[in-house]
């Protein structure tokens, strides 16, 4: 067999000895168990890069390629993105805001710039619509709202929740697409009451709101597309758990140096107190 495969007998037996030692090594088995735990807690959404970073955080000095090898040995597989369609209705005659954000996604402080968007979730009872508000500084979802109808109240409730939770000051930029909900009189009045500055993407340009789009991509790839919701309530509870129990508190973000939004904000706040 070695002659057929073009390898030496010594190399083959070295490989067999290494495999036997690794399989019996308690430390190796512990790492494999940790890889499985990380994969399970991340809803099998982490690739080798994030698995490696999570192992580093737990004290294992593992690189990306070693992490990929460990994932294979642990039988860990990653969920992949499925395509979804855009639901923005920008074909209206209501006034729109200038693009104040202009793809400046790097923000120096929290509660300076929020982005917002709407997506849809299918259940056996029909569609459930989700609106979110994200703080660009930490990528934390600071406000959200769900409804059976994609009306103005959906986006207003999400922003009201963000205001209630974070108490942002006047001058905050709130960016969205040109959907009719964000161009409505009620939404514009809400911005005016709090002294916020409206901002909207250019026509047909999803990259102008890519942070919100990225969040929805993660939510659907890591959670929604692998479920079959019998009721809107079941979908609602699943989304709430994903946002509050995983995304904000545990999910590692490459933009944040592989920290979760909550961890990133806590570390920045700690540095401020020390200074």
Automatic annotation (TrEMBL):
Pfam family, one: rve_2
Superkingdom of the organism of origin: Bacteria
InterPro entries, A to Z: HTH-like_dom, Integrase_cat-core, RNaseH-like_sf, RNaseH_sf, Transpos_IS3, Transposase_IS3/IS150/IS904
Name this protein carries in UniProt: Transposase InsO and inactivated derivatives
Lineage of the species this protein comes from: Bacteria, Pseudomonadati, Pseudomonadota, Betaproteobacteria, Nitrosomonadales
Swiss-Prot/TrEMBL GO biological process terms: DNA integration
Gene Ontology molecular functions: nucleic acid binding
Species per Swiss-Prot/TrEMBL record: Nitrosomonas halophila
Domain Integrase catalytic: 91-269
């Amino acid at each position: 067999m070695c002659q057929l495969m073009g390898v030496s007998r010594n190399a083959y037996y070295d490989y067999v000895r290494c495999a036997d030692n690794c399989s019996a090594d308690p430390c190796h088995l512990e790492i494999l168990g940790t890889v499985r735990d990380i994969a399970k807690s991340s809803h099998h959404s982490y690739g080798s890069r994030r698995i490696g970073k999570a192992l580093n955080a737990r004290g294992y000095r593992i690189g990306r390629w070693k992490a990929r090898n460990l994932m294979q040995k642990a039988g860990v597989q990653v969920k992949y993105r499925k395509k979804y369609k855009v639901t923005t209705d920008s074909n209206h005659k209501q006034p729109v805001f200038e693009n104040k954000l202009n793809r400046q996604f790097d923000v120096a402080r929290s509660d300076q710039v929020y982005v917002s968007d709407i997506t849809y979730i299918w259940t056996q009872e029909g569609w459930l619509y989700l609106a979110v508000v994200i703080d660009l500084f930490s990528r934390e979802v600071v406000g959200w709202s769900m409804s059976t109808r994609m009306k103005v109240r959906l986006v207003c409730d999400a922003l009201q929740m963000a205001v209630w939770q974070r108490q942002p000051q006047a001058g905050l930029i709130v960016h969205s697409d040109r959907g009719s909900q964000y161009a409505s009189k009620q939404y514009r009045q809400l911005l005016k009451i709090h002294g916020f500055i409206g901002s909207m993407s250019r026509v047909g340009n999803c990259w102008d709101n890519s942070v919100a789009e990225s969040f929805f991509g993660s939510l659907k790839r890591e959670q929604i597309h692998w479920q079959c919701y019998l009721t809107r309530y079941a979908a609602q509870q699943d989304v709430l758990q994903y946002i509050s129990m995983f995304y904000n508190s545990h999910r590692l973000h490459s933009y944040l140096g592989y920290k979760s939004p909550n961890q990133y904000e806590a570390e920045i706040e700690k540095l401020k107190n020390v200074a």
